[in-house]
Amino acid sequence: MPHTAAEIATIVQGEVLGDATILITGLAAAAAARAGDLTFAEKEPQFLAAEQGDAAAILAPAPFTSARKTVIRVANPRIAFAKVLPLFHPAQHFMPGIDASARIADTAQIDPSAHIGPHCVVGEGVAIGARSVLMGGNHILSGSRIGADARIFPNVVLCERTQLGDRVTIHAGTTIGSDGYGYVFDAGIHRKVMQVGNVTIGDDVEIGANVAIDRGALGSTVIGAGTKIDNLVHIAHNVTIGRHCLIMGQVGFAGSTHLGDYSVVASQSGIAGHLKIGPQATIGAKSGVMRDIPPKGTVLGIPAQPDKEMKRQFIAMQQLPDALRRIRDLEKLVAQMAEKLARQEK
User: Fold this and answer.
1) How many degrees, rounded to 5, is the angle at CA 242 between CA 195 and CA 271?
2) Does the N-terminal or the C-terminal CB of the chain have fewer CB atoms within 10 Å?
3) Which of 88, 113, 129 is the last residue of a domain?
4) H-type alpha helices, the chain
C-alpha cells in the first residue's frame, strides 16, 4: 500500500522538504532504488548517490537538502528506515486455529487466537498465549509456557518447563532447554549429572536459527528481556544473560557465567564458565574470555585482555618481522666485529 511522504514523516517524526504528497511505494538501497522508492542516507556520499538515482524520496539527517528530491529530514535515518520497513513488508499473518495434523495434549491450554501449524506436538500442561504462532513441526514439551504474540519458526523445540515471555521470536532449528553438559568422574567412567532445571526467556527476546540453550542443572538458565541472539550460538546450563544484550553468531558460553545488561559479544567468541561480565561490556570478535570483565570493559584477543593493551600487542606483533630482520643484521655485524678483533689479537 502506498504512503505519502507526509504520512511517513509523521511515523518517523520527521520534516518533509519538498513534495509532501509524493507517493512512496517501496523501500530500497540508493543504488537499487526505482521510481516510487524511499531510500536513506547518513553521510554525504550516500546522499549524493541517492540524489542522483531514481528514488522518490530520501530519509536523511540535517543539514541535507535537495533541489531534485523530496527529503524527509530525521534525527537518525537508520532508525527511521527500520520504523518504515513494516509498512511495506508487514509480518506474515496467521489465522487462529489448530492444524488437523497437530497433536495437542488434553491438559494443554491454548488461547483461541493462537495459531498451531502442521505437525506440531504440544505436551501436557503447556500454556500458549494470545496470538502466538507455532509455524510447523514444533515440539513444545510438558510444562512449558509461551506468552502472547510469540513467533516460533519451523522445527523449534522447547524442552520441558521452558518459559517464554511475550513477543519472543525463535528462528528455525533452535532447541531451548536441552540437557546441560554435566558429568562427574567416578570409578573410571564419566557419570552423568541429571539436569533438572529449565530455561526462562524474557519479553521481546529474538533468538536466531540453530541456537542451543541448555537448561539449568538446578534452577534456570536465564535470557533477559530485549536480548537478541544471532545464529549458531550455544549457551550452557545456568548461564544468565542480562537485558538488552547483543550476542552475535557462533558464540559459546560455558556454564554458570553471568553477562550483564546491555553487553555486546561479537562473533566466534568463547566465554569460560563461572565468570562475571559486567554491564555494558564489549567482547571483540574471536576472543577467548578467561577472566571476569568489569562494567563497561572492552576486551579482545586470546586470552582476552583489555582492548588498549591488546591493540599494543597487535602492533608489536606486526613489527616483529622487521625487528627480527634488524636482530639478524646486528648478529651478523657483531660476528664480523668479533672476527676482526680476533684477527687483530693474532
Assistant:
1) 65
2) C
3) 88
4) 5-12, 44-52, 77-88, 307-345
115 belongs to the catalytic site: no
Q: Identity (one letter) of the amino acid at 296?
A: K
Using CA atoms, how far apart are residues 149 and 94, in angstroms rounded to an integer? 11
Residue 146 falls inside a structural domain: no
Catalytic residue, from 115, 139, 171, 237: name it: 237
Q: How many domains does the chain have?
A: 3
The CA-based angle 12-16-20, given to 5 degrees, is: 110
Q: Which of 284, 176, 268, 154 is nearest to 220 (CA)?
A: 176
Are 192 and 65 members of one domain?
no
DSSP, res 109? E
Instruction: For 80, list phi and psi in degrees, rounded to 5.
Output: -60, -40
* Predicted TM-score (pTM) of this structure: 0.90
The three cell numbers of residue 52 are 542522483
| 314: Cα within 13 Å, side-chain hemisphere | 11
Cell of 231: 545464529
pLDDT digit string (tens) for 188-243?
A: 999 999 999 999 999 999 999 999 999 999 999 999 999 999 999 999 999 999 99
Question: Which amino acid does the sequence have at 220?
Answer: S
User: What single letter denotes the amino acid at residue 241?
Assistant: I
